[in-house]
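Complex record, two chains
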Amino acid sequence: MSQSSTRRAGTFLIGGTEAHTTRSLSALFLPILAVGAVLALVPLWLGDSRVLMGVAVLGLAFACYVIGFNVIFGSTGQLFLCVGALAGVGGFGATILADNLGLPILLSILVATLAATITGGLLSFIAVKRSLGVIFTGIVTLIFTLSFDALLLGLTQLTGGDTGRVIHAGADTFLRERIPPYYLMLALVVLFLLIHGLLRRSHIGWAFRALRDDEVAAELAGVDVARYRVYGALIGAAMLGLAGSTYVFTEGRLSPTTFGFGHVDVVVLVMLAFGGIGTLFGPIVGAITFTIVDEILIDFGQLRQVAYGILVIVLFLWMPRGLIPTVVSVWRRARGRVDVVRIVEDPARDGGNPTYPRKEKQNDVSK
Amino acid sequence: MMANILDGIVLGLQFGLLAAGLTLIYGLGGVLNLGYGQMAVTSAMTVAFALDADIPILPAVGLGLLAGGLFGLLLDLTLLRPVYRLRGEARVLLSLLLTLGVSFIIDGYLNWRYPLKALSLHIGGGAVEILGVLMRRGSLVASGITLVTITGLFVFFRYTSLGRAIRSVIENEDGARLIGIDPKKMLRLILVLSGVLAALVAVTRSMVAPVDTTSGLSITVFALIVTVVGGLGNVAGALIAGIILGIVNIVAADLIGSYISLILLLVAAGVTILIRPAGILGVRE
């Protein structure tokens, strides 16, 4: 398994099919609206079961989290291991504002989203200012997650501690009915997809691609890497906060595991890696797939965790770029466009090892 | 107060030893092993089952250490193979994700199969008075073993040619290769050693508090925090950081309650990363 696997390993996480700017807006909007329309049909199929609709709503919430995480990690390469905590700032914040302080639900959601946005931006700002690498950013945000979890368990009056709490706000509204929450979350998913899609077309998207491909080159070309990293974190954190705070009102219950590291971050990471890091629709593919897988494995209890572990390993070993990029590159190869392997000499980047095969995209050679 | 500080030192020594195993693999191979806590738990369970099978305590502990070492060897021979082909941050990231997968598999399996299993070793005899404080004999034995191990590690790295060879790889992998040291062999050795260290921590920890099937995550987290504060790849830093954080943890837990003390510990780690990214003993590059 020498040559081919080395090549695959070499492209690990270096995002495959970064979307090339589509020229017309409709080419961007149509696929997103099509995905939204297909997902809108789900209640026709599952609508009778309250349990299954709950699962579907949770799946959409996860789709939102994955899109938010994708904007932060996929676009700007910041490994934020605090997806659950940021969504939790939104979720717990909105609950406390609405139930304890009696604010209207909409206002609570907005304020809590703002809090999550600021938190995410602050974490990114610190990481950028101290120029922490991927790993240290991961560790700092992991520390934030652990502190947040400890706080949740400690502040029992506000969070209900281990047992969690019931949310009274919105109890008699459409938020707790069977079908409407699904469309509410679906609207969020479509909104986030549109935002992410537009972002990729804008100058911010260009900056993201530049800084992710080569930070130094981007800086030399005049891209303010620090600023765009913080932008990415702000946008992603806002998505996480909004999704988390909206979701809790449809759920009506809140417990430490709702936003726990093992329940959210890990799952989000797996979903994104499966769908394809940095792709527009990867998060949707990942979220749908794993929501279904999770439902199939539900009877296995703790063994589900084993299954997740195996999946993580298999995914990252054999499909490190995710499903969508892998399928796309197989498709391209089948159509006669070649991927060329070139030996690049880049000792500074590869820690002194001069020969290091890296795959270069040359899609249009045969055109 | 004195009692707290002594307790903190007992805990801190274990933190330090825990972090030493993690930091060595990182420094040597650029591999961040998130399954480290599960290594410890697996060894603890091995000891527990050996004791259930009426094996005397010393051979049982020996089996536990063997299990830890084998775990490390197995990781090196299987999952870490593709990791070694990468370099730099991609290597750390892939190793982190794969070992995270391993930790899920082990945690999930153990919690499913043996949900109530725990290892706690009782060291007989009453309390002993030290500096005017009564200390449990278990804590003292645990600290003694930890201290001996730490001393052994220092002697090994400072005075044996094998230890020096390992340090040379940490310092400069290509240079080490030039003078005929095989970094891969050293890495394998260190993975086995870190497995044994994890097992040792699990055993000594179980003399103070029970180690159960869910302990893996918290062991990994503490090891990670201490490692980061001590500086990645720095064994002496890990030990000092371990002792400081151990004392902070116990004193804070006593003064203001346990969840705040955990947060304080985390904040201390966060601040250290921000002020001195290379760790407390680290040299700024």
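Note: Chain B touches chain A through 47 residues (CB under 8 Å).
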